[in-house]
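Contributing new records

If you add data, match the layout below exactly. Sequence lines come first and carry their own label; structure lines follow with theirs. Keep one chain per record. Anything else will be rejected by the validation script.
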Amino acid sequence: MTIDIYTLSYTDLLTVAGAAAVCAVLTQWLKQYLPDWRFTNLLALALTTVLAEIAAALSGPFSAQSAFAAFVTALAGASLATFGYETIVNLLGFAGMGPRK
C-alpha cells in the first residue's frame, strides 16, 4: 500500500505509513514556528496521536481497543518520522554535508 500525501484521508492515519507521513509534515511545520526546538518531536507525537484518535473515532465504533491501536500506530509512525529524520541528518553530517557537518 502506498500513501499519497496529496490524497491522504483520515483512514490513512490508522496505518504506520500514514501516521509517519503526517508526523513528518507536522514536524517540519513546527520547526519553523517553535522558538525552542527541544519540544518539537514531542509536540509532533502529541498532534499525531490526537489526529489518529480522531480518525479512529470517525472510522467506526470507538472502543478502548481502537483507541489503543490508534495510539500505538501514532507512536510507531511518529517514531519512524522522527528517528528517520534524525538518522538521515546525522548521516549527512557525518559525510560532511547538511546542518550538522
